[in-house]
């Protein structure tokens, strides 16, 4: 058992390193996943922030939404990377090697999470320069980190399943549009109560809103309520379903 676990860890670590090296060579995708969320935050704070009435400084309000959007862009890059490996036959080559087959997918997901964490740290750094001042205590920060990692894992496995199910990188890029669009239709940038009546139920009951509300409450030292548990239920379920879907698709593509 120990030898098997060691092999899985070693192979996954090697595949993660390989994915990270590939990401570092894709300058356009790297800039999109890391720098674009920062540019969007600057845009919302300095261009739209003065017109927003959210009951506090807009930078205090918008940071959780930008973090979620940041993970969405990173996950979209993962779908493209997986689809590219499939299209070029690289995954088939890995199947012929004496390595743990699941490590190929784990490497893509781990690389996505690491890249997203770097991007998130950069967003926080820029937010502090813009005046973001969280009131979170130690346990609150642990909650933020846990929720963010759960969110990243769920989206990364979803992106991996998408990358395995499409024919090429272009299709993968298009199929991840929903992950980039839904944060805009949530409480990320404006309160849901300010939206037109027909959109309010959609914005309030989609999975991104409770995640954003939970992060915002934890960061600002506000009551979390049920939002954290709802977010965990949503993205815990998405993680399980997407992991199973990716596993099934990976086995089917090998037949």
Task: Provide the fold topology.
Layout (H helix, E strand, L loop, with lengths): L1 H24 L1 H8 L1 H13 L9 H31 L1 H6 L7 H28 L7 H28 L3 H7 L1 H5 L18 H6 L2 H13 L6 H27 L2
**Extended strand count:** 0
Count of individual helical segments: 12
Shape: elongated
Order of helices and strands: HHHHHHHHHHHH
Describe what you observe in this structure.
With 255 residues, the protein is mainly α. The protein has one domain. It is 77% helix and 0% strand. It contains 12 helices and no strands. The longest helix has 31 residues, at 58-88. The chain is elongated, with a radius of gyration of 19 Å. The two termini are 27 Å apart. 42% of the residues are buried.
Q: What's this, in brief?
A:
The protein is mostly helical and 255 residues long.
List the defining traits of the structure above.
about 260 residues, about 0% strand, about 75% helix, mainly alpha
